[in-house]
Amino acid sequence: PLSCGIVGLPNVGKSTLFNAITQAGAESANYPFCTIDPNVGVVEVPDERLDKLTELVTPNKTVPTAFEFIDIAGIVKGASKGEGLGNKFLAHIREVDAIVHVVRCFQDENITHVSGKVDPIGDIQTINLELVLADLDSVEKRIDRSRKNLKGGDKKYVQEIEVLERIKEALYADKPARSLELSEDERLLVRDLHLLTMKPVLYAANVSEAEAANADGNPFVQLVREFAAEEGAEVVPISAKVEAEISELEGEDKEMFLEELGLAESGLNRLIRAAYKLLGLYTYFTAGVQEVRAWTIRKGMKAPQAAGVIHTDFERGFIRAEVVSYDDLVAAGSMNAAKEKGQLRLEGKEYVVKDGDVMHFRFNV
Ligand code: GDP
Fold first, then answer.
1. Which of 60, 116, 128, 148 has its CA 20 to 30 A from that of 228?
2. Separation of 15 CA from ligand 1 center, angstroms?
3. Could you say which protein family the record assigns here (predicted)?
4. Is 247 annotated as contributing to ligand binding?
């Protein structure tokens, strides 16, 4: 499954946020493919369309789609040189698809800050520098290797070196690799380097309980927003402490607590949705009387691959898919009505699945 790594300096609220994530926890029986590991939290993706489909179909069961958050604690200054538990953590970051970077925007005299004062931009730069240094190391090693290969006369290394040099230049200027505009081909050339600064990032600005409903009144949050805008990154203000409390409540109690705080929904839900978007993911639905369910795919996946997300047999034996878009289905009011209006399409192996498609697969066993 796709995953998002949670990083940040010590004492910024990572564990508090991660605990809220695991506490809010997904029904694990629904997600047998997910990793069982104390550092992995499975989250369900809130989606109003799923509620609407449930109303329409009244199935026995509704299952949201899910992805994983991984707690990557322990990054400190000097990590790229192997200080702290340095390299081990960088290796963990290498494996995730996107990064949620928690930064401290709350003031609390009782909680020590590693650098002595609340300074979210300084914190971001400290961590980013470690990631940049680790990437520089990877890039320089690869340039050396490709230069040697180039002497053998293989032209494909010319373009590779050209891209690597551009990335190196950006890194030297303290800019993440993702800030460069690379073509799809150029991206492919460097993909196997798994550069840390190529991964999409979202900053979670951790504010105090009192600021939960009005986080943008916190001047540090504004600084983080300005910084992120320059990088083209997203910001989600959140109060980790409040989320930890919310995650212990359910149903009406939860609604009441949110209302008291003046929140329309939990910050965790906002974070999950923002992370999902950051990962570039699409959702399609299956809607049977037994089960209405949301499934996650990457943009651009074709029907057989999308079917494979449910079960590998579905991909192997794929014949065709019956497809209706979510909007058409809801407007028609029922599957039969959509069919009568000619909105139920038969699609084959080359069909590229769209976000919000409601699919029914035909396959050979
Ligand atoms: P980590 O080292 O980044 O995992 O940080 P923790 O989640 O362990 O948090 C460090 C300390 O800060 C803990 O005592 C938390 O209770 C506290 N903390 C986290 N978020 C907030 C917050 O929003 N407000 C206040 N006052 N304390 C917080």
1. 116
2. 7
3. Belongs to the TRAFAC class OBG-HflX-like GTPase superfamily. OBG GTPase family. YchF/OLA1 subfamily.
4. no
Percentage of the chain lying above the pLDDT 70 cut: 94
pLDDT bucket at 6, cuts 50 / 70 / 90: very high
Domains of the chain: 3-47+62-117+199-278 (3.40.50.300), 130-196 (1.10.150.300), 300-363 (3.10.20.30)
> For residue 101, how far is its CA from the centre of ligand 1 (angstroms)?
15
- Ramachandran region of residue 280, left (φ > 0), alpha (ψ -120 to 50) or beta? left
Whole-structure pTM value: 0.86
Integer Cα distance of 30 and 68 in angstroms: 14
224 belongs to an annotated ligand binding site: no
What pLDDT digit, counting tens, does each position of 71-110 carry? 987 666 666 666 555 667 788 899 898 999 999 999 877 7
User: Would the ipTM clear 0.90, i.e. be above it?
Assistant: yes
Cβ–Cβ < 8 Å for 198, 177: yes
In one letter, which amino acid is 125?
A: Q
- Name the DSSP letter for residue 352: B
> Is the Cα dihedral 150, 156, 158, 161 positive or negative?
negative
* pLDDT at residue 80, rounded to an integer: 62
- 16 labeled binding residue: yes
Cα radius of gyration rounded to whole Å, the chain: 23
Burial, 359: exposed, middle or buried (Cβ in 10 Å; 0-12, 13-18, 19+)?
A: buried
Cβ(241) to ligand 1 under 6 A? Answer: yes
- Phi, psi torsion values for 354, nearest 5 degrees: -105, 155
Beta-sheet pairing, 234-238 with 291-298? unpaired
Structure confidence at residue 111 (pLDDT)? 74
CA 238 to ligand 1 centroid distance, Å: 12
